[in-house]
Specification:
The structure is a single chain. This protein is an alpha+beta fold. Helix 2 packs antiparallel against helix 3 and helix 6 runs antiparallel to helix 7. A five-stranded antiparallel sheet has the order 4-3-2-1-5, with no helix packed on it. InterPro entries: LSM_dom_sf, MscS_beta-dom_sf, MscS_channel_2nd.
Length: about 290
């Protein structure tokens, strides 16, 4: 008998985690038997129970037995579960550190898709990058660069790509949110000694000449956008604001509405007229009619 006990003990010692396995089997057997005994006692004590009441007892006993089994197994395997959890946490931390940038790029792509921040064909500016989006994938966005000078709205002929992780930390400006039309604005620094009253009317003349043919159509379009998307849309008429800056220059803030494809042309026409007027004022040359 002693030899048999020793053999059984040696066999159990050779099995990894033998006490836990034995205790688990005993626990499961006890839970199953306890549930069956309890049900038999309840049914015997209450033979008047209907089918629905008996079914309710079966379901309740099953759920309670399941919870008891899970709780008991958790207590039996607590040490192993803790070690496994620590290993998984360490593995997860190492994985996150190794793939941090990829995860951030995927998160940026998800944010862009959910918020519909931009799509192919949109004009956007993020950080110091400005261009028209030509391709989007899960990790990066490719766009045709506009510039390099921000006052030049033409394509530079270069492409620029940025990781989508920038969408989590950088603000994005999207120009064509109003569809095929855009409300465009830019600043013109002016030497403080030049009279703005001699400059602004000439710039208004250029803006009116270029923007007037589209004003009515853009106005109707903005009203439709406001009704459909509940956007507060800006006014269609061109505006030039005068903003003090420092003791050397002040700023002319120019804003106008136009078709997306015409804004660069209109901006350049305004800048050309400003350069001409500035040259005449700085050199004391008499005023001439604005070029149409």
């Amino acid at each position: 008998m002693n030899d048999l006990d020793r053999n059984i003990g040696s066999l159990l010692d050779s099995i990894p985690l033998a006490p836990q396995w034995v205790n688990s089997l005993l626990l499961l057997a006890a839970v199953v038997c306890g549930r069956l005994v309890w049900l038999r006692l309840r049914f015997r004590q209450h033979p008047e129970f209907s089918i629905e009441e008996k079914r309710r007892l079966v379901v309740v006993s099953r759920n309670m037995a399941f919870l008891a089994a899970v709780f008991g197994l958790f207590l039996i395997w607590a040490a192993q579960i803790q070690s496994f959890a620590l290993s998984m946490v360490a593995l997860a931390a190492a994985t996150v550190l190794a793939t941090k940038e990829l995860i951030m790029c995927l998160s940026g792509s998800l944010l862009r898709a959910v918020n519909k921040q931009y799509s192919v064909g949109d004009y956007i500016e993020i950080g110091h990058l400005r261009g028209r989006v030509v391709d989007i994938n899960l990790f990066s966005t490719l766009m045709m660069q506009i510039g390099p000078n921000p006052h030049i709205g033409n394509m530079s002929g270069k492409t620029v790509s940025f990781p989508n992780s920038l969408l989590l930390s950088q603000t994005i400006q999207r120009d064509n949110i109003l569809g095929r039309y855009v409300v465009h604005s830019f600043d013109i620094p002016v030497p403080i000694r030049l009279d703005s009253d001699a400059i602004v009317p000439r710039l208004y003349t250029v803006l009116d000449a270029y923007c007037a043919p589209y004003a009515a159509e853009i106005g109707r379009h903005l009203e439709e956008v406001q009704a459909q998307k509940l956007f507060i849309t800006p006014a269609v008429q061109p505006r030039i604001g005068r903003v003090p800056h420092d003791d050397k220059v002040y700023i002319l803030a120019v804003r106008f509405a136009s078709p997306v494809g015409k804004r660069a042309e209109i901006q350049q026409a305004v800048l050309d007229e400003f350069i001409r007027v500035q040259y005449r004022l700085l050199n004391g040359i008499g005023d001439k009619p604005a070029d149409s």
